Amino acid sequence: MTPEPTPTLQQLLAFYLEAGVDCALGDEPINRLEEPEPVPAPAAPRPAALNPLRPPPMPAVPRSEITIAPDAAIASAREAARTAPTLEALRTLMETFDGCALKHTATRLVFADGNPQARVMFVGEAPGRDEDIEGLPFVGRSGKLLDRMIAAIGLDRSKAYIANVIPWRPPGNRTPTPQETQVCLPFIQRHIELVNPDVLVTLGNPSTQALLGTREGIMRTRGKWIDYDTGARTIRAVATFHPAYLLRSPSYKRLSWQDLRAIAKVLAS
Ligand code: URA
Question: What is the catalytic activity of this protein (predicted)?
């Protein structure tokens, strides 16, 4: 059997890119195949009687690894979000919030785009690479399609508001974990309450399930109007396909057009 040719650097990078590995998480490469250095035996503890009042020193933890325990992070996100009186305050709060590890691998917070006075708010799942670079939601390929979709019912970003459930890009665009979603949920819920739109549109399964509290798939939930309690009032909410899904399955654009027409009708009423 002839051995496989060694891939070129370009082929290797193309392979990584295909797999979603498109950014460096650290300044120095880590060889994870290297044998670990033998760990020196810990020094014998000093007899407690020598210094009974002083607690043992905490081991140094790199800042990027500081994360709060899941339940505490969810509780702290809830408390923080609840106290944000304005969108600016909410953004500042999220910029300083340390309870979600995604923040440490993302380049920046992707808060929102569009007009906060708009009557309609669209909510997607999480930023991708382009959004992470620009700091705005839906600016990549699926964002371009979203722009065309809303243009078809006479909207643009000056007449709509756009955000995501998760405001930090998951590394390599991986699916956010349920715990990451739970930690970020209070922020987007408060975000919706502060924007106070007449119509909320969830884009795709993850944002629909997180915000509309359903376990059903998008095929069943899309196009059905439900009441969403913002905390201050009840607004009309509807799910439709995520534009990234429509890019992969263009035959569903027909159903998405039905959803968009229904949204335009409610906005006109
Ligand atoms: N997909 C999303 O769900 N949100 C974005 O901002 C971009 C792509």
Answer: Hydrolyzes single-stranded DNA or mismatched double-stranded DNA and polynucleotides, releasing free uracil
Atom of ligand 1 nearest to the CA of 124: 3
Instruction: Provide CATH code, domain 68-268.
Output: 3.40.470.10
Q: Is the CB of 142 under 6 A from ligand 1?
A: yes
Per-residue model confidence as pLDDT tens digits over 48-88 = 444 545 544 544 444 444 467 788 999 999 999 999 999 99
- Separation of alpha carbons 238 and 204, rounded Å: 11
The atom of ligand 1 lying closest to the CA of 136 is: 6
User: Over the stretch 126-164, which tens digit does the pLDDT of each residue have?
Assistant: 999 999 999 999 999 999 999 999 999 999 999 999 999
Domain ranges across the chain: 68-268
**Strands across the sheet containing 120-124:** 113-114, 161-164, 120-124, 199-203, 234-240, 226-229
Chain centroid, CA 227 distance in Å? 23
202 lines ligand 1 (CB under 6 A): no
Expressed in angstroms and rounded, the spacing between residue 20 Cα and the centre of ligand 1 is 15
